[in-house]
Design a protein that fits this description.
Radius of gyration: 19 Å
Number of helices: 9
Distance between the termini: 18 Å
Shape: globular
Largest sheet: 7 strands, mixed
Number of strands: 10
Strand order of the largest sheet: 2-1-3-4-5-9-10
Strand content: 15-25%
Order of helices and strands: HEHEHEHEHEHHHEEEEEH
Helix content: 25-40%
Protein backbone atom coordinates (compact mmCIF):
# COMPACT_ATOMS: atom_id res chain seq x y z
CA UNK A 1 0.00 0.00 0.00
CA UNK A 2 2.72 2.47 0.92
CA UNK A 3 4.43 1.93 -2.45
CA UNK A 4 1.31 2.02 -4.62
CA UNK A 5 1.73 3.71 -7.98
CA UNK A 6 -0.77 5.42 -10.22
CA UNK A 7 0.75 3.55 -13.16
CA UNK A 8 0.28 0.09 -11.66
CA UNK A 9 -3.00 -1.81 -12.00
CA UNK A 10 -3.34 -5.22 -10.32
CA UNK A 11 -5.76 -7.64 -11.96
CA UNK A 12 -4.90 -10.59 -9.71
CA UNK A 13 -6.11 -10.70 -6.13
CA UNK A 14 -3.38 -9.47 -3.79
CA UNK A 15 -1.76 -11.78 -1.25
CA UNK A 16 -3.84 -10.28 1.56
CA UNK A 17 -7.05 -10.90 -0.39
CA UNK A 18 -6.13 -14.49 -1.13
CA UNK A 19 -5.13 -15.16 2.46
CA UNK A 20 -8.36 -13.59 3.68
CA UNK A 21 -10.29 -16.10 1.57
CA UNK A 22 -8.24 -19.11 2.70
CA UNK A 23 -8.50 -18.20 6.37
CA UNK A 24 -12.27 -17.81 6.06
CA UNK A 25 -12.28 -21.54 5.36
CA UNK A 26 -9.71 -22.41 8.02
CA UNK A 27 -11.53 -20.50 10.78
CA UNK A 28 -14.70 -22.51 10.14
CA UNK A 29 -12.90 -25.86 10.10
CA UNK A 30 -13.38 -27.34 13.56
CA UNK A 31 -10.50 -29.74 12.93
CA UNK A 32 -8.04 -26.91 12.28
CA UNK A 33 -6.20 -26.33 15.54
CA UNK A 34 -2.49 -26.40 14.69
CA UNK A 35 -1.18 -24.63 11.59
CA UNK A 36 2.28 -24.77 10.02
CA UNK A 37 3.48 -22.02 7.67
CA UNK A 38 5.99 -22.86 4.96
CA UNK A 39 7.04 -20.74 2.01
CA UNK A 40 9.70 -19.58 -0.38
CA UNK A 41 12.28 -17.20 1.04
CA UNK A 42 11.59 -13.98 -0.82
CA UNK A 43 9.27 -11.00 -0.44
CA UNK A 44 6.13 -12.87 -1.51
CA UNK A 45 6.76 -15.88 0.72
CA UNK A 46 7.33 -13.62 3.70
CA UNK A 47 4.20 -11.61 2.91
CA UNK A 48 2.09 -14.77 2.76
CA UNK A 49 3.37 -15.91 6.17
CA UNK A 50 2.70 -12.49 7.70
CA UNK A 51 -0.83 -12.39 6.26
CA UNK A 52 -1.54 -15.88 7.62
CA UNK A 53 -0.42 -14.92 11.12
CA UNK A 54 -2.48 -11.72 11.15
CA UNK A 55 -5.64 -13.30 9.73
CA UNK A 56 -5.60 -16.36 11.97
CA UNK A 57 -4.90 -14.31 15.09
CA UNK A 58 -7.84 -12.06 14.28
CA UNK A 59 -10.37 -14.60 13.07
CA UNK A 60 -9.67 -17.55 15.36
CA UNK A 61 -7.00 -16.81 17.96
CA UNK A 62 -7.27 -20.28 19.51
CA UNK A 63 -5.52 -21.73 16.46
CA UNK A 64 -1.86 -22.30 17.24
CA UNK A 65 0.84 -21.63 14.68
CA UNK A 66 3.19 -24.49 15.48
CA UNK A 67 5.94 -23.71 13.01
CA UNK A 68 7.15 -21.35 10.33
CA UNK A 69 9.76 -22.11 7.69
CA UNK A 70 11.19 -20.31 4.67
CA UNK A 71 13.31 -22.13 2.10
CA UNK A 72 15.24 -21.19 -1.03
CA UNK A 73 13.23 -20.93 -4.24
CA UNK A 74 13.62 -23.87 -6.61
CA UNK A 75 16.65 -25.27 -4.81
CA UNK A 76 15.02 -27.92 -2.60
CA UNK A 77 14.86 -31.31 -4.30
CA UNK A 78 13.75 -33.29 -1.26
CA UNK A 79 11.15 -31.85 1.09
CA UNK A 80 11.22 -34.89 3.39
CA UNK A 81 13.18 -33.03 6.13
CA UNK A 82 10.64 -30.19 6.05
CA UNK A 83 7.73 -32.62 6.18
CA UNK A 84 9.37 -34.37 9.13
CA UNK A 85 9.34 -31.06 11.02
CA UNK A 86 5.72 -30.45 10.10
CA UNK A 87 4.74 -33.95 11.20
CA UNK A 88 6.64 -33.60 14.48
CA UNK A 89 4.84 -30.32 15.18
CA UNK A 90 1.48 -32.06 15.14
CA UNK A 91 0.13 -29.66 12.51
CA UNK A 92 -3.26 -30.51 11.04
CA UNK A 93 -3.10 -27.73 8.43
CA UNK A 94 -0.33 -26.32 6.24
CA UNK A 95 -0.49 -22.87 4.66
CA UNK A 96 1.82 -22.10 1.74
CA UNK A 97 2.25 -19.66 -1.11
CA UNK A 98 4.61 -22.08 -2.86
CA UNK A 99 4.34 -22.56 -6.61
CA UNK A 100 5.95 -24.83 -9.22
CA UNK A 101 8.14 -27.69 -8.03
CA UNK A 102 8.32 -26.17 -4.57
CA UNK A 103 4.62 -26.94 -4.21
CA UNK A 104 4.36 -30.28 -6.00
CA UNK A 105 7.41 -31.77 -4.27
CA UNK A 106 6.16 -30.51 -0.91
CA UNK A 107 2.77 -32.22 -1.28
CA UNK A 108 4.29 -35.43 -2.65
CA UNK A 109 6.70 -35.59 0.28
CA UNK A 110 3.73 -35.18 2.62
CA UNK A 111 2.00 -38.14 1.01
CA UNK A 112 5.14 -40.27 1.19
CA UNK A 113 5.40 -39.51 4.90
CA UNK A 114 1.69 -40.19 5.47
CA UNK A 115 1.13 -36.64 6.67
CA UNK A 116 -2.62 -36.23 6.82
CA UNK A 117 -2.66 -32.44 7.08
CA UNK A 118 -4.72 -30.27 4.76
CA UNK A 119 -2.80 -27.94 2.45
CA UNK A 120 -4.11 -24.43 1.94
CA UNK A 121 -2.35 -23.08 -1.13
CA UNK A 122 -2.36 -20.08 -3.44
CA UNK A 123 -1.42 -22.07 -6.54
CA UNK A 124 -2.45 -25.69 -6.12
CA UNK A 125 -4.55 -25.33 -9.27
CA UNK A 126 -1.76 -23.67 -11.28
CA UNK A 127 -0.34 -24.86 -14.59
CA UNK A 128 0.99 -28.40 -14.22
CA UNK A 129 0.31 -28.61 -10.49
CA UNK A 130 -2.71 -30.98 -10.36
CA UNK A 131 -1.07 -33.56 -12.63
CA UNK A 132 2.22 -33.35 -10.76
CA UNK A 133 0.57 -33.58 -7.34
CA UNK A 134 -1.71 -36.45 -8.38
CA UNK A 135 -3.54 -38.55 -5.81
CA UNK A 136 -1.51 -36.92 -3.04
CA UNK A 137 -3.72 -33.84 -3.29
CA UNK A 138 -7.19 -35.35 -3.53
CA UNK A 139 -9.36 -34.02 -0.72
CA UNK A 140 -6.34 -32.37 0.87
CA UNK A 141 -5.05 -29.60 -1.38
CA UNK A 142 -7.03 -26.39 -1.49
CA UNK A 143 -6.45 -23.44 -3.78
CA UNK A 144 -7.77 -19.90 -4.07
CA UNK A 145 -8.53 -18.11 -7.34
CA UNK A 146 -10.96 -15.66 -8.91
CA UNK A 147 -12.59 -18.52 -10.86
CA UNK A 148 -12.05 -22.15 -11.79
CA UNK A 149 -13.55 -24.42 -14.47
CA UNK A 150 -15.94 -26.09 -12.01
CA UNK A 151 -17.28 -22.83 -10.61
CA UNK A 152 -20.61 -23.86 -12.09
CA UNK A 153 -23.45 -22.24 -14.01
CA UNK A 154 -24.35 -22.45 -17.68
CA UNK A 155 -22.39 -19.36 -18.72
CA UNK A 156 -19.26 -20.39 -16.85
CA UNK A 157 -19.42 -23.88 -18.33
CA UNK A 158 -19.94 -22.46 -21.83
CA UNK A 159 -16.97 -20.13 -21.41
CA UNK A 160 -14.69 -22.99 -20.44
CA UNK A 161 -15.98 -25.36 -23.11
CA UNK A 162 -15.47 -22.63 -25.72
CA UNK A 163 -11.89 -22.17 -24.60
CA UNK A 164 -11.17 -25.90 -24.74
CA UNK A 165 -12.70 -26.18 -28.21
CA UNK A 166 -10.40 -23.43 -29.42
CA UNK A 167 -7.38 -24.80 -27.55
CA UNK A 168 -7.91 -28.59 -27.35
CA UNK A 169 -4.43 -29.74 -26.35
CA UNK A 170 -3.87 -30.57 -22.69
CA UNK A 171 -0.80 -28.34 -22.71
CA UNK A 172 -3.01 -25.41 -23.78
CA UNK A 173 -5.43 -25.76 -20.87
CA UNK A 174 -4.27 -22.58 -19.19
CA UNK A 175 -7.16 -20.22 -18.63
CA UNK A 176 -7.36 -17.69 -15.81
CA UNK A 177 -10.32 -15.36 -15.81
CA UNK A 178 -8.20 -12.51 -14.45
CA UNK A 179 -6.12 -12.59 -17.64
CA UNK A 180 -9.25 -12.55 -19.78
CA UNK A 181 -10.55 -9.61 -17.74
CA UNK A 182 -7.22 -7.79 -18.10
CA UNK A 183 -7.30 -7.94 -21.90
CA UNK A 184 -10.98 -7.02 -22.11
CA UNK A 185 -10.67 -4.11 -19.69
CA UNK A 186 -7.51 -2.77 -21.32
CA UNK A 187 -9.13 -2.89 -24.76
CA UNK A 188 -12.22 -1.11 -23.44
CA UNK A 189 -10.07 1.53 -21.73
CA UNK A 190 -8.17 2.22 -24.96
CA UNK A 191 -11.47 2.57 -26.83
CA UNK A 192 -12.85 4.89 -24.15
CA UNK A 193 -9.68 6.99 -24.12
CA UNK A 194 -9.55 7.10 -27.90
CA UNK A 195 -5.81 6.77 -27.56
CA UNK A 196 -3.02 4.47 -26.42
CA UNK A 197 -1.39 7.34 -24.49
CA UNK A 198 -0.65 6.00 -21.01
CA UNK A 199 -2.26 8.78 -18.96
CA UNK A 200 -5.49 8.62 -20.94
CA UNK A 201 -5.69 4.82 -20.71
CA UNK A 202 -4.92 4.85 -16.97
CA UNK A 203 -7.69 7.36 -16.34
CA UNK A 204 -10.13 5.22 -18.33
CA UNK A 205 -9.18 2.11 -16.35
CA UNK A 206 -9.96 3.74 -13.00
CA UNK A 207 -13.36 2.53 -11.84
CA UNK A 208 -13.75 0.34 -14.93
CA UNK A 209 -16.02 -2.68 -14.66
CA UNK A 210 -15.82 -6.17 -16.15
CA UNK A 211 -18.98 -8.26 -16.46
CA UNK A 212 -19.41 -11.42 -18.50
CA UNK A 213 -22.51 -13.07 -17.08
CA UNK A 214 -20.77 -15.11 -14.39
CA UNK A 215 -18.11 -12.73 -13.10
CA UNK A 216 -18.33 -9.11 -11.97
CA UNK A 217 -15.18 -7.12 -11.19
CA UNK A 218 -14.33 -3.45 -10.69
CA UNK A 219 -10.98 -1.64 -10.79
CA UNK A 220 -10.92 0.23 -7.47
CA UNK A 221 -9.89 3.84 -8.02
CA UNK A 222 -8.19 4.25 -4.64
CA UNK A 223 -5.41 1.73 -5.22
CA UNK A 224 -5.95 0.25 -8.70
CA UNK A 225 -6.76 -3.18 -7.28
CA UNK A 226 -9.30 -5.26 -9.19
CA UNK A 227 -12.06 -6.15 -6.76
CA UNK A 228 -13.62 -9.48 -7.70
CA UNK A 229 -15.07 -12.67 -6.20
CA UNK A 230 -12.77 -15.42 -4.99
CA UNK A 231 -13.24 -19.18 -4.80
CA UNK A 232 -11.57 -21.58 -2.41
CA UNK A 233 -11.68 -25.03 -3.98
CA UNK A 234 -10.51 -28.51 -3.05
CA UNK A 235 -8.82 -31.04 -5.34
CA UNK A 236 -10.96 -33.94 -6.58
CA UNK A 237 -10.82 -36.68 -9.22
CA UNK A 238 -12.88 -36.46 -12.39
CA UNK A 239 -13.63 -40.17 -12.05
CA UNK A 240 -15.15 -39.54 -8.64
CA UNK A 241 -18.05 -37.70 -10.25
CA UNK A 242 -17.94 -34.60 -8.08
CA UNK A 243 -16.61 -32.34 -10.83
CA UNK A 244 -17.42 -31.81 -14.50
CA UNK A 245 -13.97 -30.74 -15.71
CA UNK A 246 -10.41 -31.75 -14.96
CA UNK A 247 -7.25 -29.68 -15.39
CA UNK A 248 -5.00 -30.30 -18.41
CA UNK A 249 -6.47 -33.75 -19.01
CA UNK A 250 -4.92 -34.90 -15.74
CA UNK A 251 -8.03 -36.51 -14.31
CA UNK A 252 -7.86 -34.06 -11.39
CA UNK A 253 -9.81 -30.86 -10.92
CA UNK A 254 -11.22 -28.65 -8.19
CA UNK A 255 -14.58 -28.33 -6.48
CA UNK A 256 -15.79 -25.13 -4.83
CA UNK A 257 -15.60 -25.20 -1.05
CA UNK A 258 -16.24 -21.51 -0.40
CA UNK A 259 -17.34 -18.61 -2.60
CA UNK A 260 -16.65 -15.05 -1.51
CA UNK A 261 -18.46 -12.31 -3.45
CA UNK A 262 -16.49 -9.22 -4.40
CA UNK A 263 -17.83 -7.23 -1.46
CA UNK A 264 -16.20 -9.73 0.91
CA UNK A 265 -12.80 -9.70 -0.79
CA UNK A 266 -12.45 -5.90 -0.87
CA UNK A 267 -10.02 -5.20 1.97
CA UNK A 268 -9.25 -1.68 3.26
CA UNK A 269 -6.39 0.19 1.62
CA UNK A 270 -4.03 2.88 2.89
CA UNK A 271 -2.79 3.74 -0.61
CA UNK A 272 -2.06 7.43 -1.14
CA UNK A 273 -0.83 7.45 -4.71
CA UNK A 274 0.64 10.45 -6.46
CA UNK A 275 -1.64 11.33 -9.37
CA UNK A 276 -0.50 13.15 -12.52
Amino acid sequence: NEKCSYWHFRFDAGADMRMHALTEVIKDDAQAKRVYLIGQDYSFGRLVAKAARVNLATKRPVIEIVGEELHQIGKVKDFAPYIAKIKASGADSVVTGNWGNDLTLLVKAAKDASLGAKFYTFYGNGLGAPAAIGDAGVGRVRAVAEWHPNAGGAQSDAFYRGFRQRYPLASQDYVHLRMHALVEMLASAIEKAGSTESAAVAKALEGARFRNGFHDATMRTADHQLIQPLYVSVMQTLAGGGIAFDNEGSGYGFKTERYLPAAETALPTTCRMQRP
